[in-house]
Structure to design on (1143 residues):
């Protein structure tokens, strides 16, 4: 049986651990001189993306379901957390209404809608962070997988799903702040959201969540169930004839993945300070796919790495020459699909393998 | 002996084309049966109907005279104990040979059971036994993709046996095998009969002869004739169908 | 008063049959009598003047309304004082002395109203039927029993059937306003009810509460029938809007029906090819504006082939450069073409800037016309025609030409087609180019109704995929049915749910529909696709 922590996972987790220790110390101990505060939040954001990429890799890399709607699960998780953060503002909003968030006062609503109930409790909100995306994924998957919608058809309807949600969240009547989304957060669990210590804390939480997410994903994909997922990816019909109910497996991994994406979104919202319907846009969801493709499909660690690389490149590019970012991203899509089917991780490991191979051959020759 | 599988007046058409036309067939428990027929005779569609991949337009398909096979899906038929080997070998290429067998082993197929599954010693022993039977023990850790065509055929037979099915549907097992391998396959299938019910679809007449069993000739989705190989090959209609006018 | 007018009219009416010279004489007499009598008597004269249909009447009545009509006391000569002083009847200019000696003919509010009505009626005898129609409409909208005789007279002599029926309605309104027998009024209600629109409803509503039970009943029945006819017209308008939206969807999706439906290639850059078509139109129009403004009305006809070529060429480049390396790997194709779409978007943004570009409507695409109670804009109608034409041509190419035959052969069995001597590479490129070129044509049409910006394509991509998937990939008839049914359903939902919610409902419905029929409305059946 394959071990839970193989070499690439070990290296990645070690690197992540170093980052988790070094970044907060570099920020807090040196008063932001070594690691500026905005860098802490930026890195935290990258790690959220990495967790999201791991979630997508579980369904796409292992089970072959190319979801173009994973941004929706991410955004739903983000909104669930955002709703809690809105409730924590209390009467410190512009309108100083103790019961209603500012945008509801602005829309002259009288009372909190029922679906906002309970979100003042952090633990309830945390539960919803996973339950809401999970429930949507269950509902969607239950219909889609049972009727054997596969391949590009599935991709297209997942895209339609996130698009429909985007349109819905744009509406003021939905009760999620419409166009502007949820923002102007003050505290998280009583800690001021803008303070360096809170930012560092959120960063550490995100790193831990990423590590846990990777381990869970790894545990699932190395189990017998994980092997069956690969069977489904490679020969779905054959898997059915072996007596496995394919739709159940797909549904399981889709829901787990959606929940993980929801957690990533929940950690994203407080670090970025805003969640709005733009997160639902189909373009965002496709971008997640390229993170995974770049890093290496079906490698988990590669997906996380890909997300960080693309996000870093985006930050640098948009800072240096903003108009070239889309060229770069577009080129990345083309180059990766044409020339890097195994992603960066696959390329690195192949290069290493090639360098090592001549050695035994030489020994054999001598013997 | 009781009837294990019964097809009763089955019809199925695709866009007006009658792939299966009033097909009736009964196979006894433990029987070894060869089904032959020219291309387009409906052999594959017949297997699709038995395994729940295709629903018949009319007619009944009965398992053990009690279970209606037209109401179940592929996975359901596999769980009942119907194993199928495809014409074109489909093994899971990225998995190792050993894993291919392990995944086929008869075991609880639910999501949670597989999530928390740990391989038992009995299972490990069974895997080794099967690998020895299909002569792939030396290749057990290689990815299935690396196997030759003939080896893939064997691996698939191994996977089929791992499922321990009551009924084996075997579609052209000899394709891509050497003569010696073909004979060994025939021998294996003969040895399975009795304990298992086996239906073999085949083109290779030498292979069918080696099976030494009752033969059903299918033509245009209908049973043309049934009997021993010598009996059916003496039938003028069969000769006409195979050789044309 | 009414009686008086009726008498006067009875006297005057035979004049219409009289010879021209006599009519002229009577006209002169009427005008000369204008300064005399009470205001109400002069009101009748004003009406009579209008009824003569004399070409001079309009200038005289307008002058009277503006207080620019005078009379020279000494001679009794009626004169127009402004803008150029002249004899009202002969048209000869006046001397300054004459002009200053003239006394203005006074008018009060009642008379002014009569004059305005008369001016309205005057157009009833205008030689241009369109103007007569407008005058009848004006009279219909402003019920006035005083106009009855004028309208009746105009009605009697009108020969154009459209104008005549409108006049009948206007006359009916006047009857309802006045003191007429119940039978006539009920008849009038029926005439108005037949019109069946919002105006008719507005006019009849007060009569439903009439004290006269007969009238009230007739009006209530008429209102009910109007309600129904309005509902029907409302449905018709919805269907039209739906067809219009459907034609837009069809245009956006039809190229996809080829690349995705026929070739099985997901081209996420399809929307950007549409955008390229729209920008080609923009470029053509800019060139025309600067060099040959007279050709502006031809701009779309010039842009269409160019857009086809530009988008088609880009499509061929995409196929040769990227897609052909990824055949059989649909998901990878999806990602790579998404990359292409980002690059195309940014290229256009870098060249033309991020803002909306102004693309004008040629004159033949501007404006609108009415059909019954619904309004049809010319640009929407032309786009519908254009979409159907593109569809027809495409159908012809696919089913009736050698190229189409080769395309179908290659998509159905590539190795077999290749072994029969078809150059599959060439056919692939051509098919993809055709789909892309049609996207360019769609861009020309969409530039007329949508903002031309680098994001144009993005807004259509989800919708057009929905159309193709809903209609059933591989079947261009399915795309046609899919586009129009989605368009119409969307527009029927909009009044109840609002535009955004309607769209969401349609999306969710399609998602659910695909679960039921994964291969779409017009699925290609058979064994081949079941595997």
């Amino acid at each position: 049986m394959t071990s839970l922590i193989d070499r690439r996972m070990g290296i990645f987790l070690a690197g992540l651990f170093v980052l988790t220790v070094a970044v907060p110390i570099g920020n807090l101990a040196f008063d932001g001189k070594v690691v500026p505060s905005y860098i802490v939040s930026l890195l935290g954001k990258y790690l959220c993306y990495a967790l999201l990429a791991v979630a997508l890799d579980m369904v796409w890399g292992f089970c072959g379901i190319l979801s173009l709607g994973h941004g929706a699960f991410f955004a739903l998780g983000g909104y669930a957390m955002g709703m809690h953060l809105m409730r924590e503002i209390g009467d410190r909003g512009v309108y100083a209404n103790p019961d209603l968030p500012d945008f509801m006062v602005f829309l002259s609503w009288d009372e909190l809608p029922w679906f906002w109930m309970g979100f003042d409790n952090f633990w309830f909100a945390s539960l919803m962070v996973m339950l809401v995306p999970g429930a949507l994924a269950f509902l969607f998957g239950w219909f889609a997988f049972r009727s054997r919608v596969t391949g590009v058809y599935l991709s297209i309807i997942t895209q339609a799903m996130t698009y429909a949600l985007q349109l819905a969240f744009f509406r003021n009547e939905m009760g999620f702040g419409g166009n502007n989304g949820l923002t102007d957060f003050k505290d998280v669990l009583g800690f001021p959201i803008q303070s360096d210590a809170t930012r560092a804390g959120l960063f550490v939480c995100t790193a831990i969540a990423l590590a846990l997410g990777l381990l869970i994903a790894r545990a699932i994909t190395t189990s017998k169930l994980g092997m069956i997922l690969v069977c489904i990816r490679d020969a779905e019909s054959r898997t059915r004839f072996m007596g496995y109910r394919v739709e159940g497996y797909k549904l399981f991994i889709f829901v787990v993945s959606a929940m993980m994406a929801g957690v990533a979104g929940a950690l994203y919202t407080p670090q970025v300070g805003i969640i709005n319907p733009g997160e639902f846009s189909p373009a965002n969801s496709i971008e997640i796919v390229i993170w995974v493709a770049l890093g290496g499909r079906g490698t988990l660690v590669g997906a996380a790495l890909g997300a960080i690389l693309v996000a870093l490149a985006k930050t640098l590019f948009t800072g240096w020459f903003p108009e070239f970012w889309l060229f770069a991203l577009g080129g990345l899509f083309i180059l990766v699909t044409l020339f890097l089917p195994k992603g960066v991780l696959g390329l690195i490991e192949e290069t290493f393998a090639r360098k090592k191979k001549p050695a035994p051959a030489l020994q054999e020759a001598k013997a | 002996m009781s009837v294990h599988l019964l097809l009763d007046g089955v019809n199925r058409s695709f866009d007006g084309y009658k792939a299966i036309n009033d097909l009736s067939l009964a196979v006894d428990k433990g029987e070894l049966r060869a089904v032959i027929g020219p291309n387009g005779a409906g052999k594959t569609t017949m297997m699709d109907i038995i395994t729940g991949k295709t629903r018949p337009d009319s007619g009944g398909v009965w398992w053990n005279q009690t279970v209606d096979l037209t109401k179940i899906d592929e996975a359901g038929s596999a769980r009942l104990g119907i194993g199928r080997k495809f014409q074109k070998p489909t093994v899971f290429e990225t998995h190792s040979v050993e894993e291919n067998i392990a995944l086929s082993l008869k075991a609880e197929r639910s999501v949670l059971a597989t999530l928390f599954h740990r391989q038992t010693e009995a299972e490990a022993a069974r895997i080794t036994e099967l690998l020895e039977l299909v002569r792939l023990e030396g290749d057990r850790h290689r990815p299935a993709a690396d196997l030759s065509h003939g080896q893939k055929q064997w691996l698939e037979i191994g996977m089929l046996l791992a499922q321990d099915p009551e009924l084996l549907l075997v579609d052209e097992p000899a394709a891509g095998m050497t003569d010696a391998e073909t004979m060994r396959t025939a021998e294996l299938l003969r040895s399975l009969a009795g304990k298992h019910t086996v239906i073999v679809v085949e083109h290779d007449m030498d292979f069918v002869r080696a099976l030494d069993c009752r033969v059903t000739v299918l033509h245009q989705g209908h049973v043309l004739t049934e009997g021993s190989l010598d009996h059916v090959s003496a039938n003028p209609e069969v000769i006409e169908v195979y050789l044309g006018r | 008063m009414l009686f008086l007018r009726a008498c006067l009219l009875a006297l005057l009416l035979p004049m219409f049959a009289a010879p021209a010279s006599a009519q002229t004489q009577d006209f002169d007499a009427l005008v000369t009598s204008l300064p005399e009598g009470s205001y109400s008597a002069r009101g009748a004269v004003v009406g009579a003047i209008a009824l003569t249909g004399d070409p001079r009447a309009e200038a005289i009545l307008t002058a009277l309304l503006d207080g620019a009509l005078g009379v020279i006391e000494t001679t009794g000569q009626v004169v127009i004082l402004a803008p150029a002083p002249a004899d009202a009847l002969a048209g000869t200019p006046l001397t300054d002395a004459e002009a200053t000696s003239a006394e203005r003919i006074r008018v009060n509010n009642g008379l002014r109203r009569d004059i305005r009505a008369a001016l309205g009626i005057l157009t009833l005898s205008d030689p241009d039927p369109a103007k007569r129609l407008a005058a009848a409409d004006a009279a219909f909208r402003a019920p006035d029993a005083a106009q009855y005789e004028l309208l009746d007279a105009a009605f009697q002599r009108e020969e154009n059937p459209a104008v005549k029926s409108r006049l009948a309605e206007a006359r009916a309104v006047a009857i309802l306003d006045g003191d007429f027998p119940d039978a006539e009024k009920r008849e009038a209600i029926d005439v108005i009810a037949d019109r069946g629109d919002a105006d008719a409803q507005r006019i009849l509503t007060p009569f439903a509460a009439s004290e006269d039970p007969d009238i009230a009943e007739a009006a209530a029945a008429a209102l009910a029938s109007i309600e129904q006819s309005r509902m029907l017209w409302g449905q018709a308008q919805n269907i039209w809007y739906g067809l219009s939206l459907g034609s837009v969807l069809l245009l956006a999706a039809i190229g996809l029906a080829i690349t995705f439906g026929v070739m099985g290639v997901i081209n996420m850059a399809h929307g950007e090819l549409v955008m390229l078509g729209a920008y080609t139109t923009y470029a053509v129009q800019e060139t025309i504006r600067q060099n040959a403004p007279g050709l502006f009305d031809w701009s779309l006809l010039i842009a269409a082939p160019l857009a086809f070529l530009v988008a088609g060429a880009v499509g061929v480049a995409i196929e040769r450069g990227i897609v052909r390396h990824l055949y059989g790997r649909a998901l990878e194709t999806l990602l790579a073409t998404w990359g292409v779409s980002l690059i195309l978007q940014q290229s256009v943004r870098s060249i033309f800037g991020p803002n909306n570009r102004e693309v004008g409507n040629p004159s033949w695409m501007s404006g609108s016309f009415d059909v019954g109670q619904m309004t049809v804009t010319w640009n929407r109608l032309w786009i519908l025609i254009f979409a159907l034409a593109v569809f027809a041509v495409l159908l012809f190419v696919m089913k009736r030409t050698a190229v189409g035959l080769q395309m179908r052969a290659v998509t159905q069995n590539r190795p077999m087609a290749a072994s029969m001597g078809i150059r599959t590479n060439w056919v692939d490129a051509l098919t993809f180019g055709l789909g892309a070129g049609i996207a360019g044509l769609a861009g020309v049409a969409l530039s007329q109704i949508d903002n031309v910006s680098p994001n144009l394509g993005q807004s259509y991509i989800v919708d057009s995929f929905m159309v193709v998937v809903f209609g059933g990939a591989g079947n261009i008839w399915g795309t046609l049915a899919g586009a129009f049914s989605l368009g119409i359903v969307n527009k029927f939902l909009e009044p109840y749910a609002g535009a955004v919610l309607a769209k969401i409902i349609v999306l969710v419905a399609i998602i659910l529909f695909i679960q039921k029929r994964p291969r779409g409305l017009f699925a290609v059946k058979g064994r081949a696709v079941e595997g």
User: Anything to note?
Assistant: Residues 7-22, 525-531 of chain C have pLDDT under 50 and may be disordered. Chain C touches chain B through four residues (CB under 8 Å). Strands of chain C lie at 69-72, 77-80, 86-87, 103-104, 368-371, 374-377. The longest strand of chain C covers residues 69-72.
